[in-house]
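Entry 14. Ran structure prediction on the chain below.
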Amino acid sequence: MTQAPLLLVEDTPSLQLVYEAVLRSAGHEVIVAGDAAAALGFFRARKPGVVILDLVLPDRDGLDFMREILALRPSTSVIVITANGSINKAVDAMRAGAYEFLVKPFDERRFLNAVENAKADSGRLHDGRDAKHPHIPPGDFIGVSPAMTQVYSKIHSVARSMATVFITGESGTGKELCAQALHDLSTRAKGPFVPLNCGAIPSELLESEVFGHVKGSFTGAIADKPGAAATADGGTLFLDEICELDLNLQTKLLRFLQTSTIQPVGASRTRKVNARILCATNRDPLEEVRRGRFREDLYYRLHVVPINLPPLRERGEDVVAIAEAALSRFSAEEGRSFGALDDDVKSLFRTLTWPGNVRQLLNAIRHVVVLNDGPVVTRAMLPIEMHHEAELAAVDQSPAHRRNSFPLEAFHGKTLGEIERMVIEETIAAHGGSVPKAARVLDVSPSTLYRKIDAWKAGA
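Output, structure tokens:
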């Protein structure tokens, strides 16, 4: 059976010639169109599996054109091309279903890699032969709450893309599990998965850890060392806690993302690296941009496909399912006979706020298994701090506490602005100084609270 051709949609004649020559020299059959009208005719007639689309067309908005062809044939893999100044539009295209985007100017190897990956994937996510069940937990995830099934669906949808994925969520929600699942479901699954926790490495060593170094480049560099980026060549590089990168290293990371080249510390030459980038943070990345701690251009280059992992307290019955699975696994590892959770324990788990999320739950179950034996986990076996947390939760939820936690007379003689400040500061203090947690209680965004705090400091 004849392989479907590629459709190249580019209105600049010189670029048409360059792109077509590169593709044909790599053995691809190519159809070239200079505008959306001609491209749509070719698309209907030849049914290409891959479309290479410049988002700036003379007769139509490229994003609208992409949406139309994906509506006609959802299995099409669309690689969008954009100038550096239009990267936000490329991000919109990714969220609308594009397979990959390339920012001009891009090198030949990156161009051909994107095309080969798109050809390999074309149709697989949409036909019955290779379709996944989008709501089945991928990788090591456990639980089928509505909040998590949305996450699973997104993982299955974007895993085989080359798009950068930005994972957010509180500490302990499973951001590395998410990154591992994205890698395992991707076309790069046979390549390396290289995780790097940017917050766990001293800033003076971080550049070497990411990009490598050559012997003698600094004190202690006794041999050449490949960095995480080079190690991930052909696979996936996962940068956890990416907001911990200093601004200088952020600049170098942006250059790597744009050129697919790295330069180890002390090296005189660059080298090409073909790695997909996944990143994660437990901070609010937009707030970090607003405060000048994270480059805005890097944020938009990374924040192509966002995945937010919900906290455990918002996952309903998942907390029991995770606890039971952990109990079974840890019991086998420790040679214990546990087989079930007491109903009182299940009820308690459903009501706790779990500030440490899944990591805290796993630690609690491990504690129980190591210090006790079965067959049933009872409330008395739980760590003492969990009993304290349960007592505090019971007090917080009591009508008397809700009525008296902030006596009305405390507000007498105060302006509305002063009362608002009192409530906000009290809420932040009650949650250990955590602005994001206070924001959830007050039902506002963290950025709203940060703005108010900055205004209070400025007026002090």
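The longest helix spans residues 318-334. Will compare against last week's run tomorrow.
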